[in-house]
Amino acid sequence: MSGYKYGSCYYGKIEDVDWERWQKLVDMIALLFDAPAAFVTQATTNGIEVLVASEQAPSQYCPGAYSDKNTNVYCHQVVQSNQVMYVADASEDEKWSDNPEYTEDQFSSYLGYPIQWPDGNSFGTLCVMDQRPTDYSDKLMTVLSFLRDTINSDLAYLYKANQLKVESRFDELTKALNRRGFTESFERHISLSNSFNRSSMLMYLDIDGFKAINDQWGHSVGDQILKDFATALLKSVRKSDLVARWGGDEFVVLLDSEQEVDKSRFVERLDESLKTSCQEHIPQYSIGSVELASNTDPNKLTDFLCKADAAMYDNKSLNKTKR
Fold this sequence. Notes:
Elements: H1 7-10, H2 19-32, E1 37-44, E2 47-53, E3 66-67, H3 74-81, E4 85-87, H4 100-103, E5 109-116, E6 122-130, H5 138-167, H6 179-195, E7 199-207, H7 210-217, H8 219-235, E8 242-247, E9 250-257, H9 263-277, E10 285-292, H10 301-317
Antiparallel strand pairs: 1-2, 1-6, 2-3, 4-5, 5-6, 7-9, 7-10, 8-9
Helix pairs in contact: 2-5, 7-8, 8-9
């Protein structure tokens, strides 16, 4: 179906929802509307997926069931239009002649409200369906609208909590990971590499003469160089690799590979990225590294960082920036 929105998938998973609360909510809706089925659905890459179903809903509408994007079901229309939709009697509108909810399961009445993330992107629907034509009062519709707003509030809370969690793991200036984010990710990353017998390399990088840059050109220029350097680093690695601002003008990078990690190739990519990412000043840098075997202890990050840091300072003192 053209124009289908995938906004629900953009914000990731929603395991922290109070599912018991949502279950009670849809059961209450089915009771209030004297209807056999009420649902909370989510617009996913599969299509419209049932998240929560009232207790009396038919088994084919259990949580996890979905209608693909090309199937003409009621909720698709609500997601696409982002508007409330009330179908009192589907037999009076030809548009539902190929809707299996009507033609196969005899759901001739539908009332659905769009559920949204805080920024207005579509999440899914809150809806009630009946196998009889209906004539719902304005009062009942107001009740359903209020309950939809309750779900929107739940999503707003989840969204905010997730944003705070993300922000706590990333450096505000450069958008690279911060110490906390890198440390948490390092343990998972190394454990996974060990499982697949992959090699890793930890690199410690320092921008040469950064204090002099700040003193001569000002902190705004220094901040821009930090941002440009982080951007160049991120462009030089794969999405599965890790890049973090460790503090000040120091950065750490974790690369892995099925074979031995090629440090020289990384430096080549970084140098090329710096040429395109830096707005004015292309910084010089020093780099140190330590190879991590496929049986690396993920709890020894501090030891590895000390070794990579020492190697970086050796290179800096010898003026070997690997350029």
